[in-house]
Amino acid sequence: MKVRSKRESGIDSRVRPAEEEVRPGARERAVEMLRRLLKVFPRPKTALLHDNPFQLLVATILSAQCTDERVNAVTKELFKKYKSVTDFAMAPPAELERDIHSTGFFRMKAKNIKSCSMALVEMHGGIVPNQMEALVRLPGVGRKTANVVLGQAFGLTSGVVVDTHVHRLAQRMGFTKEKTPEKIEQDLMKLFPRKYWLDVGSVLVLHGRKTCNARKPKCAECVVADLCPSAAIFLRQLS
Ligand code: SF4
Fold first, then answer.
1. pTM of this prediction?
2. Inter-residue contact 232 to 189 (CB < 8 Å)
3. Which among 12, 99, 109, 144 is annotated as catalytic?
4. Is residue 163 annotated as a catalytic residue, yes or no?
């Protein structure tokens, strides 16, 4: 059996979890919360429609500050018009901007998609690499986008996706006191065993949309309320 190297497996050696830094009992509590949420959201997957890693990369870039539904509506036509990495690399900027206009921040997104496609053609023969180090070197691709692509398109656990929902829930649920996505991701990687990293990001996004909303979290109907340090605070505010 071929053993994959760290490079091939997408593991970023700079973000190795430090088991000894986790408080006693914190991991058990966190994993129990995740297990309960996985019963509510079994086998969570990205809602972004795609047929290959490159399409997921484009859809993830478009999803910044935009709903998955809107992105899917746009990519349905976009991927019919631009069928390959080269098509995106050669797209006239103004035309690409028009094609993705309704996803918001269209100038920056079009620039990133075009630059990223050009870099893929020049550096990787038009193929999306499956290593974190290579992905984050592409224009417009940060750790969040790279984690989505590695996890959802390649099934590789390279880290935890931290978007605005994960950011908010990780703090509320007592998983971190950090404030930046990078540091929050580090804390989540220390807290959860690697086999849960893909699920943590996906489940917290879904829980954040359905129950633990930004403005009015529905703590009274939350399946992890008895383990959540914020439940009492929110329930007191609402009573
Ligand atoms: S108890 Fe409230 S704050 Fe805690 S995770 Fe559930 S909804 Fe969010």
1. 0.80
2. no
3. 144
4. yes
